[in-house]
Amino acid sequence: MAKKQEKELSFEETLKQLETIVAQLEGGDLPLDEALNEFEKGVKLARAGQQQLQQAEQRIQILLTENSDAELSDFLTDNNE
Protein backbone atom coordinates (compact mmCIF):
# COMPACT_ATOMS: atom_id res chain seq x y z
CA MET A 1 0.00 0.00 0.00
CA ALA A 2 1.23 3.51 -0.78
CA LYS A 3 2.77 5.49 2.04
CA LYS A 4 0.82 8.61 3.06
CA GLN A 5 2.50 11.92 2.49
CA GLU A 6 4.04 13.26 5.68
CA LYS A 7 3.15 16.87 4.88
CA GLU A 8 0.50 18.45 2.75
CA LEU A 9 1.85 19.82 -0.51
CA SER A 10 1.43 23.47 -1.34
CA PHE A 11 -0.83 24.32 -4.25
CA GLU A 12 2.21 25.11 -6.37
CA GLU A 13 3.89 21.79 -5.53
CA THR A 14 0.65 19.94 -6.27
CA LEU A 15 0.34 21.65 -9.63
CA LYS A 16 3.96 20.94 -10.53
CA GLN A 17 3.60 17.23 -9.74
CA LEU A 18 0.35 17.08 -11.68
CA GLU A 19 2.01 18.70 -14.71
CA THR A 20 4.82 16.13 -14.53
CA ILE A 21 2.34 13.25 -14.47
CA VAL A 22 0.38 14.67 -17.39
CA ALA A 23 3.58 15.01 -19.43
CA GLN A 24 4.52 11.39 -18.66
CA LEU A 25 1.07 10.14 -19.63
CA GLU A 26 1.00 12.19 -22.81
CA GLY A 27 4.39 10.76 -23.75
CA GLY A 28 2.79 7.34 -24.05
CA ASP A 29 5.99 5.52 -23.07
CA LEU A 30 4.79 4.12 -19.73
CA PRO A 31 3.70 0.50 -19.37
CA LEU A 32 -0.02 0.14 -18.71
CA ASP A 33 0.29 -0.64 -14.99
CA GLU A 34 2.60 2.30 -14.40
CA ALA A 35 0.37 4.59 -16.46
CA LEU A 36 -2.64 3.58 -14.37
CA ASN A 37 -0.72 4.23 -11.15
CA GLU A 38 0.36 7.65 -12.39
CA PHE A 39 -3.19 8.42 -13.51
CA GLU A 40 -4.45 7.53 -10.03
CA LYS A 41 -1.84 9.82 -8.45
CA GLY A 42 -2.87 12.56 -10.87
CA VAL A 43 -6.54 12.25 -9.92
CA LYS A 44 -5.63 12.50 -6.23
CA LEU A 45 -3.44 15.54 -6.89
CA ALA A 46 -6.16 17.21 -8.95
CA ARG A 47 -8.67 16.67 -6.14
CA ALA A 48 -6.22 18.02 -3.57
CA GLY A 49 -5.57 21.10 -5.72
CA GLN A 50 -9.29 21.68 -6.20
CA GLN A 51 -9.81 21.42 -2.45
CA GLN A 52 -7.04 23.95 -1.83
CA LEU A 53 -8.63 26.36 -4.30
CA GLN A 54 -12.04 25.95 -2.65
CA GLN A 55 -10.53 26.64 0.77
CA ALA A 56 -8.84 29.77 -0.55
CA GLU A 57 -12.12 30.95 -2.06
CA GLN A 58 -13.91 30.35 1.24
CA ARG A 59 -11.27 32.36 3.10
CA ILE A 60 -11.68 35.23 0.64
CA GLN A 61 -15.46 35.14 1.02
CA ILE A 62 -15.13 35.22 4.82
CA LEU A 63 -12.75 38.16 4.66
CA LEU A 64 -15.01 40.07 2.29
CA THR A 65 -18.16 39.48 4.33
CA GLU A 66 -16.54 40.39 7.65
CA ASN A 67 -16.16 43.99 6.57
CA SER A 68 -17.78 44.59 3.21
CA ASP A 69 -17.65 48.37 3.73
CA ALA A 70 -13.88 48.40 4.19
CA GLU A 71 -11.99 50.51 1.70
CA LEU A 72 -9.56 48.64 -0.53
CA SER A 73 -5.96 49.80 -0.58
CA ASP A 74 -2.72 48.70 -2.20
CA PHE A 75 -0.90 45.80 -0.59
CA LEU A 76 2.35 47.02 0.89
CA THR A 77 5.32 44.89 1.83
CA ASP A 78 8.55 45.94 3.48
CA ASN A 79 10.07 46.27 0.00
CA ASN A 80 7.40 48.79 -1.15
CA GLU A 81 8.12 51.40 1.50
Describe the structure.
The model has no long low-confidence stretch (mean pLDDT 82). The chain is built from two helices and no strands. It has a domain at 33-63. It has helices at 11-27, 32-66. The chain is 64% helix and 0% strand. With 81 residues, the chain is mostly helical.
Flag low-confidence runs.
none
* Radius of gyration, in angstroms, nearest whole number: 19 Å
Number of helices: 2
Strand content: under 5%
Global mean pLDDT? 82
Distance between the termini: 52 Å
Helices and strands, in order, run as HH
Largest sheet: none
Shape: elongated
Number of strands: 0
Backbone structural class? mainly alpha
Give the helix level as a range of percent. 55-70%
Secondary-structure topology with pairs:
Elements lengths: L10 H17 L4 H35 L15
Summarize the structure.
With 81 residues, the protein is an all-alpha fold. It contains two helices and no strands.
Key descriptive features of the protein:
81 residues; mainly alpha; 0% strand
